[in-house]
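Quick check before the chapter quiz. The format below is the same one you will see on the exam, so make sure you can read both the input and the output lines.
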Amino acid sequence: MPNSCLYSNKFNYLVAVYLKSMIKRIAIDKLRPKMYVSDLNCDWIPHHNMPKEGRIPNLALVEELKRRGIKEVYIDTERGIDAVSYTHLTLPTIYSV
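Here is the expected output.
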């Protein structure tokens, strides 16, 4: 446990590490390629041949997760890209003269 004077106990240290890693829970519909899934939020996975964590290479894997009944996942934004809410993006208005 580095720099133990900053953390009063191991629990506080682990909380600090967890907060720094930026683990977020997102809906499966927001999952995109290049995101890093740290947990599938599912104790049981059919066929057990699918890893429970890793980088999402393409949308086909997202569709496979949906087909298997996964509703939410946990992503790690330090190991992959962050989820972006596309509903808040606005396009510039083009005015004609």
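If your answer matched, good. The chain has two helices and four strands.
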